[in-house]
Structure formats: structure tokens, C-alpha cells
Amino acid sequence: MIQDIPVVIRAEGDRDSSTCAWQGGCSSLDAVNRLLTILAVVGTTGCFYTDEINQRPSIAIDGIGDEVYRGDKVALTQTHDDPEGHFIKFTWRAYACTDGEGGADCDTEPFYSDILDHAGFTVPFIRDGGLPVRNVRVILEAKDELGATAKPMQELVIVTLDRPPGLQLERGGNFVMTPNRAITISAAVSDLDDGPASLGTPKWEVFAPTQTPGTLADPVVMPPPDPMPDKIRTFVKTFTPSTVGEWEIRVTATDPLDRSTTKSLMFTVVPPPPPCIAQLAPIVPTGGAALPITDPTLFRVPVVVDDLDVFPAQSGDPALGVTRFEWWFKGPGAPAHTVVDNATASSFSFDPAGYTPGDIVEIRVQIYDRENTPMNCLPTDPTCSVISQPSCIQRQTWRVEVR
Predict the structure, then answer these.
(1) Going by C-beta distance under 8 Å and a sequence separation of 6 or more, which residues neighbour residue 130?
(2) Order of all β-strands in the sheet with 203-207
(3) What is the DSSP letter of 224?
(4) What is the pLDDT of residues 181-196, one digit of tens each?
(5) Which pTM does this prediction carry?
(6) For residue 228, which of 189, 256, 259, 260 has the smallest C-alpha distance?
(7) Which of 159, 79, 64, 70 minimizes the C-alpha distance to 118?
(8) Mean pLDDT: which of 14-23, 44-53, 329-338 is highest?
């Protein structure tokens, strides 16, 4: 009986070096003769064995559902299948690209590569040469533990978007806006993709309530160095409205990829309010009673509130002025008040020594800002408000009795 002989049939291209080495290699005729011999043996013994063929794994890159911007962190996963359940090694590579079709115009070297089941990387802002990144080309290759390689390798082109510039507007000064008073407008611009220096000077526009234009003073006044010059760049302009109404300041920042952000500040410019007497000394008696005076007394207006012409005067703002004072006096038996010459200070001194006890005199002060609004009250009225608002008066009269 012929002993069973295991026979191995190899795939095309394999060569038994032990059989053919002495012949200097196997010819086609050699291969046919050997195959006939093997078949004869198999027919005699009834035994036939073959090696199992190792199949290639299949792979796919899972898609990304969200939009991806330059500078974003990206996490990628894969789906795979291996018929024999072999261990698979995954190799990821990611290339920065610009406008090439399907990620064709890319760097020659990957900015990310790793051997992991999943990929994770941060999209760069620029590629080699300083060009902004428009696409990221991802390549996934896989090989099982026996060396079978997935074919074809998988590719994914991720379109990367450009964020619009950041823009914040702010007005300086917390005061009522009136015509011809300048305010400052600051525009803080940022660009996470390309840096604020790439934006240049933003576009400024003024929209007036009438045909009378406003003014934005030039040149741009830069503030002190920004605490984060690599993150934010601040521009400052002064704005002077010329008339009452609704004004709009519109600022547009544009990045190198023509993404722009526009924001506006709206202003209501009102007629200038009148000055208001805020404090008096001495205190005025109520109910028209007379203030008894025995010694020289200084009548004062310590504080005046106004949008521009305040008292005491404030420094540091060239737009601010100071209140103008006017003092009036009415002696005993006089028919009316008369203006006291050269009495323009915030105080007026009265000495009762030249009067008889029981004499009644009246001391009056009137205040004006730069508008010089006329007093629309009767001369006999002890107080006056040009806006008919008792809490804001521009005239005060003391009725004084000499003691």
C-alpha cells in the first residue's frame, strides 16, 4: 500500500526552491510534469490538502457630521471587517491642502500621522509656505497580522471653513449725547484663524438722521498697547454728531479670505439739557419765609449739574466748560431786581451793616450753560426752570431780613 503523502498546492507565482534549485529554476514544462505526478499520487492515495487563502480586510473612514473650521480638533473613526478575524493595524496620515480639487494641492509631508484604531488631530491654520488651509486630506491604510493589506486605501477630504473676524464695539463716556460733543468709539477686532494683524484697519461708516454728515476724526487714535496683541487689536475713533436725531456708526472687519463681520452702534442725540442748581448755601427757607441775617454772609452755589458746563469745572475733557453765574439784587423798597456788575463768580457776599434792622432785601442767582437759554419766567418768580421741571432750576432767590 502506498503511504498517504500530504500535498500542498501553492498559488500561482509560488516556487518550490528545493525541487527546482538543482535544475536552475522550473520551466513551464517542469511545472506541468510535476502537476501530473501529484495528480497521479493523489489518485492512488485518495488524500488532497491545500493551504487556506488569507483574505484582505476591508476598511472605511466614518464621515464627519459637523462643520470643521481651521483650528478645530477633529476625531475620526473607522469601520473594518476581516473575514478571518485577524488583528488589524491601522495607519493614519493627514495632509494640509489649499484649493486643490479633492484635496490635490497638499503638502508633501503629513502634519499628522499615527498608528491607532482612531485618529485625532487639530486642523492647522496655514500649510507649508504660509497659505491658509482650505482642505485636509486624510489617508487610512490597514494590514492584518498575516500581512494582507486592505485595497484600496481609504481617503477622506475634509473641507475646512474660515471663521469670520470677531468684532466688539464700545462707546466711551456715560453721558447724554448732544450735538457737537465728541465721543470715542473703540472697535476691538480679532481673528482666530489668521491673527488680528491680518485684518488691517476696519471700515468705518457714519449714517446721519439728516443730510448733515457726522465726522469721524482721523487719524485713528491707538490706545495703549493691548494686553493680548496676538489675540485682539483695538482701533479708536472720535465721533462728533452735528444735529439731534438717531445716528448709526457701522464698522466692518474683513479677513484675508473675504469673510467679514459688521456691527453697529446706535446713538440718540438730544438737545442739550439746561444746567441744574444742585446745591445752595445758605439753605433757602421754605414757604417764602425770610432768612435772618446779622453778620456778613456768603451766598454760594457749590455744585451745578450739566452735560457740558458743570461746576466745579472738570479737567481732562476739552469738551467740558464751566457754568456761567449771574447775580441780581433788590434793595428795600426797590421796584425790581438789577444785575450786580462784575458778580460772575459762584458766590456773592452780602454785609447787612449798611441796612436797618427789619429791612428786606432779595439776593438772586441765575446760571447759564453755553446755550444761554433765556429765562422764560416772570421777573417776580423766585425760582425758574426753563424746562418747567421744578427739580432742575436755573434761578434761585433768597429773601433776606436784616437783624
Answers:
(1) none
(2) 203-207, 245-254, 260-269
(3) S
(4) 888 899 999 888 887 7
(5) 0.62
(6) 189
(7) 79
(8) 329-338
